[in-house]
Records
---
Amino acid sequence: MAGGNFMAIPRYQLISFAHLEAVAASTNAMLAFVIFLSRRATPAGVVDDVVFYGLNVGVIGFVVALTAQLPGLYVLFVPIMGIALLIAVATHVVALGKAPG
C-alpha cells in the first residue's frame, strides 16, 4: 500500500476513515447513552435493534462508498442512517420525558 509513507495514502481514504471515527463512533456512543437513559422509563425493544443495525449499516455503507469512490451509493446509505436516527429520536424523546429525575 503506502509502504510507511503517510503522504502516499489517498486523500479520499483518509476522509473516509475520519468519517468512520467521528461520525460512527460519536453517534453510536451518544445513541447508546440516550438508550441507556430512556431504559429507566421503557424496556428495550425491537426498535432499538432496528436503530442499531440501521445506523451501522448506513455508516458502514457510507464509509465503503467513500473509500471505493462510489458516490452513487451515498444516496442509498445516508438515508438508511438518517431514518434510523429519526426513529431513535421519535421513540426515545417520549421515553426521556417520562424518565424519573
---
Amino acid sequence: YRLRSSFRPSYNMAVNLVRTDGRERSRRLLESSFAQFQADRAVVGLASELRRAEEGLEGYSESAQCDRGDFLEYSRLRQRLSAAEKNRSRRRRSDERQQVIASLEALRPGDVIEVPAGRYAGTAVVVDPGMRSNRDGPRPLVVTAERQARRLSVVDFPTPVAARGQMRLPRKLNPRNPQSRRDLASALRQEVRSLPPARRPAVAPPADDGDDIERLRRQLRTHPCHSCPDREDHARWAERYLKLDRDASDLRRRIEQRTGSIARQFDRVCEVLDELTYLDGETVTADGQRLARLYNELDLVAAECLRRDVWIGLSPPELAACLSGLVYETRNPDDAPPPRLPRGPIRDTAEIMTGIWSELERLERAHRVRFLREPDFGFAWAAYRWARGASLDHVLAESDFAAGDFVRAVKQLLDVIDQVADAAGPGDLRTAAREASDSLRRGVVAYSSVATD
C-alpha cells in the first residue's frame, strides 16, 4: 500500500520544537521530514516538464527571429492590443446591457412601447413590469397589437426602450383570456394613432479606453518588425513561444509552492505564536510552556481559554461538558441538529469558546494557515449527564449515541481533561478537572479502560 504523509506542524509541535531545538534547527528537521520528501518528489516530475518547456522555448525563439528587430517584443505588443480591444468590447456590451436593464426597470403598467426585435417585434402595452432577477433582469409581461401575451427579457431589447405614452388598462384584465387580449389589443391600436412616433432614449456613452488602444496601435505601426515581409510567419512562432512561456511560468510557480512547503508552514505557525506571545523569537514564554502540554486538535483554543480563565468557576460536570467541544466532531454536521446545551454556565462558556475560535481563525487567515476547526458541542449534554452520575441507558436514550461511540468519545474527553489539569497548574481548575475525570471514569468506561490496558 502506498504511504501518504498527513504530517503538519501544529501549534503544540511548534512550541515543543522551538523549546528543544530552536527555530533554525527545527526548520532543517522539517525540511528532512517524510512529508517534505513526498512534496519534493512530486516536484521532480514538474521539473522535467519545465526542462522540456525551456528547450521548446529556445527552438521557438530561434524560429521567431527577425532581422529587423525583436519580434517577441512586437508579438507582445500585438497581444496587449488584442486584449485591450477585447476588454473594451466586453465593457461596452456590459454597459449596454445595464442601460437596457435600467430602461426595463423604469417601465410601468400601461406604458406603450416598441419591441425592436424578435418574434414579438412591434407595438405592445406593458401589463406587468415583471420582477427583478439578479441573473436575468426584469421580465415585463406585455400584450402586443397582434393579441399575443408574452414575457419579454433583456435579449428582446438590443437597445434601451422608452415608453411612447400611457394608456388606461381595464380594471379586470386577464392576459390569459383570449377575449381580454383582443379587447386590449384593439384599444392599443386605437391609442397608438394619437401617440407620437417611437423615440430612442438617450444612451450614455460607455467608458472608453481609446487613448490606450490608439497608443498601442501607434507603437505597433512604428515597430521595425511591422514592415517585415515574413511578419505573419514569425508571428505564428512567436505566439507558440508566448503560450509555452506562460505554461513554463505556471510550472515554476507550482515548483516554488511545493519546495520547502513544510518549513514555510512552520514559519507561518511561528508567526501566529509570536503575535499571540506564545513565542518570543527563540524563547518559549510561560503561556507557550502551557501550550506545550496540550496535545489536541484545538490546542491553541484550549491554551487561549486557559490564559483567559474561561473555565474557572465551572463545576466538574460543567467543565466536562465544555471540554467535550475540543475533542468531539459530528460525523455529518450538515444533517445534525443543533447541540443541546443547558442554560447557564455551559451555554455561556460554549459561546465564549466559539468566539475565541473565531478570533483565532481570522488570525490564521491573515497568516495563511488553517489548523483550527470550530468547537463542536454535540457531545456536551451526554458528557454532562454522565459526569453527574446518570445511568448509561438514560444517557444513550437522551443523546441517541451507540454504546461504542459513547465510550470512545468519553475516552477522548478524559484525555483532554487530563491535559488541561496538567497545563492549568495548582488551583481550582486543576481540582475541578481531576474531579471531572473521576466522575467520568466509571461503569462501562472504567471497565473498557481496564480491558484495554
---
Amino acid sequence: MKNTFKKKQELSQDQKAKTFWSWFEKNQNKYLFLSDVDEEEKENLLNIFLEELQKFNEHLYFEIGGHPDDEKVELIISAEGNTDFFPAVEDLTAYAPSLKNWEIIAFKPPMGKGFKMEFHGIKFDPETIIYVPLHSENNPNSIGINVCYPDFEESEKEVYLTGTFLMLDTILGEKSSALDIDYLNVIKTPEDIAEYNFSHLSDIAEFVDEKKNT
C-alpha cells in the first residue's frame, strides 16, 4: 500500500502574526520584570523572544523597556531602519492585542535631545555636531544634509555614518530617520564653515518638520 504524505501547509502572514501574539500573551509575565532576573536568565528570555518574533519575519527586532514609573512596559517592534521590512512591522503590530501591562509600539519612537553616545571609540554629541542643509534644484522639497566632524577620517567613514544614523534614530525615531532624510553624507568640517548656513544636529527635528510642511 502506497503511503501518501501531506505537505506541511505554510502559514500565511496573518496566521504567523496571530501565532506570535498568542505566544506573547501566554508568556508576557516573564518579560515584565526583566531587570529583576539575573543576566543569564535575562539573555535566555530575550533569545527566546527573538526566536519567536523572527518566526514571523527574520528581519524584525525588538526592545523592551520604558521608565520605571510608567504604568505600562513598552514593547517596540523594529526593522532596525531597514525600509524593506517596515510593512512587516506594521502588519505585525496591527494584530497586537490590547494588554493591561503593555504598550506595543511600531518602530523606535523619537527620544529627542539631551544624550551623548560612543560608537567604536568615537564620541557623538548632537549638541556639538553640526550639519549643513543641501539644496536640490530638481527636488527642492527633498531633505539632504552633510554632517560635519572636525576629526573625520575617510578610513573611518562607515563608523561615522553608522554613529550618525544611530543619533538620528534617537532624535527623529526609526521611521522618520529612514524615510524623511533623502540624502546624508559625513564629511570633515570645512575650514570656512562659518560661511555656511549650518545648525546643530540636536535641532534636526525642527528642520525636518519645516521641510515636510513647506
